[in-house]
Amino acid sequence: MSKSILEQIEYIVVLITEFAKAHGITTQQAYKYLRDYKGLDFVEEFYDVEHTQSFEDTVEDLSFYCKRMGGTLV
For the segment 2-46, what is each residue's pLDDT rounded down to a tens digit? Predict the structure, then answer.
């Protein structure tokens, strides 16, 4: 596995943890929510931009994106 892929995986793992903390849910719940409402797809597609922002900003982006996709967490 290339270094860039490993870095992306590590980033997504930390992002899921930060998303969970921000919304007061478990990391398992955060993973399922982000998967179900296409947040993980969003991060994968826009990783090159999102990883240059703070985790707080990215969690906010994900929250709004998932809401537009039918999610209920804000």
Answer: 878 999 999 999 999 999 999 999 999 999 999 999 999 999 999
Under 8 Å between Cβ of 30 and 16 = yes
The residues, ordered by sequence, that sit 6+ positions from 64 with a Cβ below 8 Å of its Cβ are: 74
Listed in sequence order, the residues at least 6 apart from 1 whose beta carbon sits closer than 8 Å to its beta carbon are: none
pLDDT score recorded for residue 45:
94
How many residues does the structure list for the chain? 74
Dist. CA 70–CA 34, nearest whole Å:
11
Q: Could you tell me which of 27, 71, 59 has the C-alpha nearest to residue 51?
A: 59
Cα 55 to Cα 43: distance, rounded to the nearest angstrom: 12
3-state secondary structure of 25: coil
